[in-house]
């Protein structure tokens, strides 16, 4: 029988979808979508922890064929308020990778900031940002296409600071109402992080301090980014974490140097966001994940 580990990647779970543009990628599933996916998955596969995955990767233990693990990136408050109770009721383990600089805030990622500005039901004109970005955007579909172009532009250029870029882009859109939605924006508090860590089913890991792409940082900034995130987590939960996930997580977003620094800080397992399954004995710093966006349910 084929021995594979499926690591599912989630970001958040909300009560319902209510926005025109925001969350169009379904980074946050609805409760119904999440429950349906989880119930279908446990009928087919065997749930394991990321510790179990690590042990299998190192050849220290075996796992049942067709195992799966649940992971969440970024550290949204809805992880604790909505997703965690559902998982606990079902007895399912999960690992929560959090961006420590966001903890206790309503700060969005740079893409969240742009989507919030585009949510307003008015035409948007942009100029001065180059081909693929400049233009007039009226419909939801046009604004979604803009977001895809923005993501491609920013993520492919190490010279671009994503937060400066998003600030400048939003400013170029002119005065507008910025959509604020606590269910989509709020991040975990440190008390909630501690509560998750105290639940035996759950594990807390790092996901950067500012969510910047690790491979784009100079050595000193890379050490600060990883070191600060792990230091804050250890201070909050009372013990070090060996778990991490790469912000953005695509092939260009990590490197041998990134992995070396993670290992220097005691990290032993760091999955990517590259789509795919994992064989037993896979490299724990090259693990693939399957992003769940609701299309599977």
UniProtKB/TrEMBL annotation:
Subcellular location as annotated: Secreted
GO molecular function: hydrolase activity, acting on carbon-nitrogen (but not peptide) bonds
Transmembrane keyword on record: no
Key words, A-Z: Signal
GO CC term, one of those recorded: extracellular region
GO BP field: carbohydrate metabolic process
Alphabetized InterPro entries for the sequence: Glyco_hydro/deAcase_b/a-brl (IPR011330), NODB_dom (IPR002509), Polysacch_Deacetylase (IPR051398)
Start and end residues of each NodB homology domain: 66-297
Pfam families associated with the record: Polysacc_deac_1
PANTHER family: POLY-BETA-1,6-N-ACETYL-D-GLUCOSAMINE N-DEACETYLASE, PTHR34216
Protein's recorded name: NodB homology domain-containing protein
Native organism taxonomy: unclassified sequences, metagenomes, ecological metagenomes
């Amino acid at each position: 029988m084929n021995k594979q580990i499926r690591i599912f990647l989630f970001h958040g779970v909300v009560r319902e979808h209510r926005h025109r543009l925001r969350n169009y990628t379904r980074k946050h599933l609805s409760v119904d979508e999440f429950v349906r996916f989880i119930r279908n998955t446990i009928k087919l596969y065997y749930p394991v922890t990321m510790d179990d995955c690590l042990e299998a990767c190192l050849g220290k233990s075996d796992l049942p064929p067709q195992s799966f693990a649940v992971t969440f990136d970024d550290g949204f408050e809805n992880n604790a308020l909505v997703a965690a109770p559902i998982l606990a009721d079902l007895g399912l383990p999960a690992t929560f990778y959090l961006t420590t600089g966001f903890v206790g805030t309503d700060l969005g990622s740079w893409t969240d900031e742009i989507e919030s500005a585009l949510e307003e039901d008015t035409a948007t004109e942009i100029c001065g940002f180059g081909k693929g970005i400049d233009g007039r955007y009226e419909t939801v579909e046009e604004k979604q296409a803009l977001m895809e172009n923005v993501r491609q532009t920013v993520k492919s250029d190490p010279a671009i600071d994503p937060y400066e870029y998003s600030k400048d882009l939003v400013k170029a859109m002119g005065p507008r109402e910025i959509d604020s939605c606590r269910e989509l924006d709020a991040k975990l508090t440190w008390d909630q992080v501690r509560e998750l860590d105290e639940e035996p089913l759950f594990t807390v890991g790092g996901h950067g301090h500012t969510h910047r792409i690790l491979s784009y940082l100079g050595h000193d900034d890379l050490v600060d980014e990883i070191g600060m995130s792990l230091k804050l987590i250890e201070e909050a939960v009372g013990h070090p974490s060996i778990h991490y996930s790469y912000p953005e997580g695509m092939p260009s977003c990590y490197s041998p140097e990134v992995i070396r620094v993670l290992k220097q800080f005691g990290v032993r397992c760091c999955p990517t966001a590259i789509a795919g399954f994992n064989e037993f004995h896979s490299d724990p710093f090259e693990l693939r994940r399957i992003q769940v966006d609701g299309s599977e349910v």
